[in-house]
């Protein structure tokens, strides 16, 4: 696919003077080239191709959707490389600076998903930094970290204790008291057979 795109870009240069949609075709070629480089794990080449498409998108004639798509692809690439600030900048630019273009809803869906990923990664980094500071503080105060459970372990222990208590409460059951036997009747004296208790006495016991 990459070779086909590169070949098409070379052939496109020969139609530069006579092709009214040259810039549209060129930006499309650069966008596809950048995406191909990204797929074969060549981020540097991918970034160069995509930025070329973004920078020249102001000269588009009719395929205006190429500009936000190229801009978003730059953001996706920055996200893959771990540059969250640049990723967020280009993704927001693709979402806010371009309106009423083809496939806008689909692109915005992808952008929203990427922005959520950025938010999730930043939250994880913040929690990891907080935990690291807590461990460093304990180490500074001379606390043996090997014998002291971390905050996460404490939370897990509390949850397990609460779960155990809940299981104990849920184990309460009801047993049926045994009925009188014939021997019991003889011990108590003659009784009327019809006077035997018909209702079962229930008492609550705890297992």
TrEMBL record:
<feature type="compositionally biased region" description="Basic and acidic residues">
    <location>
        <begin position="193"/>
        <end position="207"/>
    </location>
</feature>
<dbReference type="InterPro" id="IPR019412">
    <property type="entry name" value="IML2/TPR_39"/>
</dbReference>
<feature type="compositionally biased region" description="Low complexity">
    <location>
        <begin position="155"/>
        <end position="165"/>
    </location>
</feature>
<feature type="compositionally biased region" description="Basic and acidic residues">
    <location>
        <begin position="126"/>
        <end position="135"/>
    </location>
</feature>
<feature type="region of interest" description="Disordered">
    <location>
        <begin position="126"/>
        <end position="207"/>
    </location>
</feature>
<feature type="compositionally biased region" description="Polar residues">
    <location>
        <begin position="141"/>
        <end position="150"/>
    </location>
</feature>
<feature type="compositionally biased region" description="Acidic residues">
    <location>
        <begin position="181"/>
        <end position="192"/>
    </location>
</feature>
<dbReference type="InterPro" id="IPR011990">
    <property type="entry name" value="TPR-like_helical_dom_sf"/>
</dbReference>
<protein>
    <submittedName>
        <fullName>Tetratricopeptide repeat protein 39B</fullName>
    </submittedName>
</protein>
